[in-house]
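The protein record minuted underneath.
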Amino acid sequence: MTISLIGAGAAGCFAAIQLARLLPHADIRVYERLHKPLAKVALTGGGRCNLTNSFSQVSSMEAVYPRGARLMKRLLKEFSHTDTMRWFEQAGVPLLTQPDQCVFPVSQNARDIVHCLLRQMQQLGVKLHCGFRVTALQAVAPGYQIEFADRPAVHSQIVIVTTGGSPRPAGLSFLSTLQVPTVPPVPSLFSFSLVQHPLASLSGTVVEHAAVRLAGTKFKASGPLLVTHWGLSGPAILRLSSVAARHLHESNYQASLSVNWLGETGEAEALQLIGQMAAAHPQKQVGSVWPVQLNHRLWLHLLHSSDVASDLRWSALSGKASRRLAARLTNHNFSIDGRNPYKEEFVTCGGVSLGSINPRTLECREHPGLYFAGEVLDVDAVTGGFNLQAAWTMGHVVAKAVAGKEVHKM
């Protein structure tokens, strides 16, 4: 029996390995359009590979999976983050859980994850074919015909689509002949561009506990915030871009962003903090004493933008100026003018509609023997290892479902 996987990303390679373990006599083939498999995994986490998360600080699935939370809650019972960690450590990759609960290889090298998966595939006899771009998928009983650009078509009894996210609808066009329902894909997990904003002079500044929201909406996020030479980035911004991905796309990435530099601290509390600093340092200059959450450069910028002279004595700071500064600390408004100019987003919102698959097996309801796993589905997560965990989980679930069906036929 031939089982073909379209896409050699995290979900595809993991599913192939699990299938080879469960069905050692099956002919398992993986077709990848790029010339290198697992290219995205090699780059994730800044080349360190944040392969999962401890989930200890996750309040709900909806908090980390803006799309597909209900499905992931079900599937994680089948293969959780602890299963992932056990799997990789047993495969020879020691792992480390950081204070922020992100899990990385101890080596801090994504290549260790890539080499582990490729080694497992090779040892189990999985056939990997790179440079095979799929152009169409046809239902040809029994099974499917996979058509490629500039290569002969192949037939397979079982097909598992693990092509990952596609920021453009054309990336899913090979499914059009089967009329598989899809949700229009749009980018997710991207930073914000602030064109010619004076904040850019503070490039490299990090605020560890900031809160951000889109004005006039319910979209908000928190976490570390990074000032870049093109705008704002860091986990807080990436999380916000994830939960608001479709809204931002529909707004052509033009929106009003509010930043609370003090995290969840309210304006009244910020005003009280300013009063405490004034009382403790009455003869010092305002620019020489700042909240511990900020650095000196950012504090001077906030003073200037609040029309407060940095050489003013704390004792001379008026109540009106204190209120302006408190408002700027907790509600600093920016005009978003697009996504970052380097198009580095790695995740896509949208894909194959979840209503078209069996949530227990990830098999297409209309086309038996056709499965989907990973980001090709309308499932995506915020930053922190949750997207790769979804890939490992869905790869395992698909492999188990396919193996169970084939064993039942015997």
